[in-house]
Amino acid sequence: MNWEQPGDGPGDESNSDSTSESGWDYDRLVDIAQRHGTPVHVLDTARLDRATEHLYDVFGGLGRPARAYYSVKTNYLPYLLRRLTGHGMGADVVSGYELEAALAAGFDPADIVFNGPVKTDAELAAAARHGVRVNIDGEQEIAALESIAARAGLTVEVGIRISPGVPVSTSSDPSYRAQAERAAARNRFGWPAGSPQLAGLVEEIAGSPHLSLTAVHAHLSSQIVHQDLMLQALGRVLEEAAVLHRRFPLREVNIGGGFGVPGIRRPRTGPLTALWTGQGGAAPAQDDEPVMEVARLLPELDKLMQSVGLEGVTLACEPGRWLVSDAMAMMTQVMSRKELPEARWLILDGGNNVAPWAGSGEIHRLTPVGRKFSDRRITWSVAGPLCYENDVHATAMELPADLRPGDLLCLHDTGAYSLGRSNNFIRTRAGIVAVDGDQEELVWRAETGADVFALADPAVPGAQPGAS
Ligand SMILES: *Cc1c(COP(=O)(O)O)cnc(C)c1O
């Protein structure tokens, strides 16, 4: 893939200036990498603040109250959570420990929603105790929460998760579209708008004296870039919400997150293309990837809500990736360069364990930094350090021909789904350095082998949490 790298094109003085069009100060990133070692993530709070402010600007232009619940699972870094509470942001949590992290970071329980397909009785009881609203996504949650609320003498506000049943992504490959349609119809999160199952559950909530249905919730998937499909899908949810609103005055319609970011690219091909290329056929040209614009999406939803009869109802959303993706980047080092008759590999010290999308086909930009590189670009395959086949960042990426061990690369867009999904298969997890103007702070230290074995029972001698 020929990934366009602004400012780094052929003939350009590659990375000779310290600030790129990506906005990252590469000299500073190199300095952090040299002092902390690689791989290391860097969080730039100014980038996070900019995204948050943009969202609130969009909210300010809507004809109704609007609010955001940050998706804690996207990046649960306590430093980041604390930073977001300062913006009047709420939190979307999907497990008990996320709820604890959100409360510890200072989110007001009234600004937290509890989502997810599984909520244990203990988690439901904690939510009820704190006054956290629960979006029902399992039949059994209704009776469990009713009995918890009845025992405590409380009324618990609940929402219900609705799915539109239609896909929010598309491709010129018909086999991709067929797959996406089937997956949307079978989606296990929420209940389909208009389905008898949904109607039955609404009756059950209505018959639960200690539950009060005040919200409709949806969350369609992640990295959605096809804005029109998202609007069509959410239109179905809004119509269902309008029907419910006539019977149960709703406080809010929560459309979830999933807003796509421009910095990453997901494969949009299906089994037909896989079959074709697997037989040696040339890979088809990639579709142009649309760009999701929250500044267009939310006003459209505002209008749709008005037109279906949801006046005065709050428009809520749960951005995760869109807020944090490009607020973090990861510095990694070339460890090995391998020229084979059929391939040229660059092997980095950061792979799937610290950038867990590696191997999924999702491509993030890689920018060589720290010295002047050759203008000649060649096609590299880029892998991480792990001893398993899928630890691959890209099978074909245009990068300078003279990359060699010791060179540093900046992997962009590591703010979403890195920390929480990282793992210590073969190599330990990376630390995170936060920069805030001139300030710099290590806000998550790198994991050590001792951390890994600290969970063993009997304890492994010398393995103490926190030992480095
Ligand atoms: C994961 C998740 C989100 C955030 O998704 P992004 O793609 O990161 O915006 C929001 N709401 C719910 C219920 C989720 O599970």
Automatic annotation (TrEMBL):
<dbReference type="InterPro" id="IPR002433">
    <property type="entry name" value="Orn_de-COase"/>
</dbReference>
<protein>
    <submittedName>
        <fullName>Diaminopimelate decarboxylase family protein</fullName>
    </submittedName>
</protein>
<dbReference type="InterPro" id="IPR022644">
    <property type="entry name" value="De-COase2_N"/>
</dbReference>
<keyword id="KW-0663">Pyridoxal phosphate</keyword>
<feature type="region of interest" description="Disordered">
    <location>
        <begin position="1"/>
        <end position="23"/>
    </location>
</feature>
<dbReference type="Pfam" id="PF02784">
    <property type="entry name" value="Orn_Arg_deC_N"/>
</dbReference>
<dbReference type="InterPro" id="IPR009006">
    <property type="entry name" value="Ala_racemase/Decarboxylase_C"/>
</dbReference>
<dbReference type="InterPro" id="IPR029066">
    <property type="entry name" value="PLP-binding_barrel"/>
</dbReference>
<dbReference type="InterPro" id="IPR000183">
    <property type="entry name" value="Orn/DAP/Arg_de-COase"/>
</dbReference>
<feature type="domain" description="Orn/DAP/Arg decarboxylase 2 N-terminal">
    <location>
        <begin position="65"/>
        <end position="325"/>
    </location>
</feature>
